[in-house]
Design brief:
By secondary structure, the protein is α/β, with parallel strands linked by helices. The protein has 12 helices and 16 strands. The longest helix is centred in the middle third of the chain and has 17 residues. The structure holds ligand AOF and zinc ion.
Length: 431
């Protein structure tokens, strides 16, 4: 249970408005990256007077979007102009003694009194540093916000509690910890990346009740023996339509998808985000292909558009590498040992490219290697109520070689399937 600090006076209304802030934050999915998803709600006299969420292209932080929305409210909604204690003095460029001239300029649009005395609900600590935009703390102080309810501290070391301090120093009441668990979940890819510069890796798998990754007929072109099943089970799909839609949502929420050449050769997958929802960067499709076996005719290569990246032990200058590159595939040589690529180096490279989250959708081999390399942060396993009943293949052929235990486990149902999710370690714990 999260510790709520700042005041004992959390009201039912606080919980409702924080819920709204979290909802808004989630609207930044695939749009905020590589920044965190943040939503903000400004409330005055029990009424929402402005709200918004952050998108990376929109630049402005959620708090600023909410303040701007509030300033566009008709005066009757907030009681008109009431004093100007924090107002910007255009001659001296000073206000309330806590602002830098730089911040004043950045926030000069805040001439409205709409937010004076208001409470801000936000899922992340307001920033107090200058990145692409000015500090939100200054804007909030300048606008006369009286109380800030924030779900969690910003994991960014450039902020990390200093935002709260700045607000308190300016006399603003700060409450933290409300709905913290949800907030931390929403911001976890950013939290992992901003501290370690490595993406958060989620291993996704779909299994039958007998622990198989493959159904009879699904890969009939490869099978030597005819499977005994009389008809293909659901066209070879292990999971339900509802589960597959959920996997699409998981792809939508990820910056990159990672698979192995084995899966590409057998399934010839597209590995795209087919939700149709907007995203600021294409889903990066990443293939581990130590010997550069990726077929030029594969769907992946045929659809490559600056969004297919292959990590290989092979030379970047071989004829095959050149052909793939000509087809629009990026080839990156990676160090390795014993024919196996260094997955930690791969994660470092993806982190350098501002990839915050990786969805690992692979077969037994790459799953095992990823788990062994310690790069997996969480797992989501879809269990389908089907029995594959393969003959001659041990039920353990699912890529989970070493024993491990998941933490913070949650479960959800999608059609007839159950998705079990848990963490291999705390992504907020650093060092
Ligand atoms: C907020 N509100 O909506 C977001 C915050 O380069 P910048 O100026 O966009 O700053 C990015 C940093 O600001 C980011 O690393 C994170 O610490 C914080 N994100 N903060 O107050 C927001 N998106
Ligand atoms: Zn900010």
């Amino acid at each position: 249970m999260a510790h709520i600090s700042g005041t004992a006076n959390i009201t039912a209304a606080d919980a409702i408005f924080m819920h709204r802030a979290l909802e808004l934050a989630a609207q930044g999915v695939a749009l905020a990256t590589p920044n965190p998803m943040v939503g903000a709600v400004l409330v005055r006299k029990g009424k929402i007077i402005g709200e918004g969420f952050h998108t990376y292209e929109g630049m402005r932080h959620a708090e600023i979007v909410a303040l701007e929305a509030a300033s566009k409210q008709p005066p009757e909604n907030f009681g008109g102009i009431v004093g100007g204690v924090f107002k910007l003095d255009k001659n001296t460029e000073a206000a309330s003694g806590v602002l830098t001239p730089e911040a004043l300029n950045a926030n000069a649009f805040m001439e409205s009194d709409a937010a004076r005395g208001a409470t801000l609900y936000v899922n992340l600590e307001p920033c107090c540093h200058k990145g692409r935009t000015g500090p939100c703390t200054n804007a909030l102080i300048l606008a006369g916000v009286k109380r800030v309810v924030a779900a969690m501290q910003d994991p960014n070391p450039a902020v990390a509690g200093r935002g709260f301090k700045h607000l308190r120093a300016a006399g603003i009441e700060v409450v933290t910890g409300l709905r913290e668990a949800e907030a931390r979940r929403l911001v976890e890819p950013f939290a992992k990346w901003i501290v370690s510069r490595r993406p958060l890796v989620t291993l996704k798998s779909a299994l039958t009740l007998d622990g198989q990754l493959v159904l009879p007929h699904a890969r009939s072109s490869r099978s030597h023996r005819k499977p005994r099943a009389r008809r293909p089970l659901d066209n070879g799909w292990i999971t339900s339509l509802e589960s597959r839609a959920e996997v699409q949502r998981m792809r939508h929420a990820s910056d990159a998808l990672l698979t192995g050449i084995g899966t590409v050769l057998v399934d010839n997958p597209l590995l795209t985000d087919r939700t149709g929802l907007p995203r600021r960067r294409k889903l990066l499709r990443v293939v581990m292909d130590s010997r550069l076996r990726l077929p030029l005719k594969s769907q992946l290569v045929q659809t490559a558009d600056n969004d297919v990246l292959v990590f290989t032990l092979a030379s970047e200058n071989s004829p095959k590498a050149r052909a793939l590159r000509a087809a629009g595939v990026e080839i990156v040589h990676v160090a390795g040992r014993g024919g196996k690529s260094d997955l930690r180096a791969v994660m470092a490279e993806l982190g350098r490219r501002e990839i915050l989250s990786v969805l690992l959708e692979a077969g037994a081999k790459l799953n095992s290697a990823a788990l062994a390399a310690g790069i997996v942060d969480k797992m989501r396993v879809f269990l389908a109520p089907k029995i594959a009943g393969f003959q001659g293949i041990a039920a353990a052929r699912n890529g989970f070689q070493a024993p491990c235990e998941l933490h913070n486990v949650t479960m959800a149902q999608f059609g007839v399937d159950f998705a079990i999710e848990g963490y291999l370690h705390d992504v907020y714990r650093t060092g």
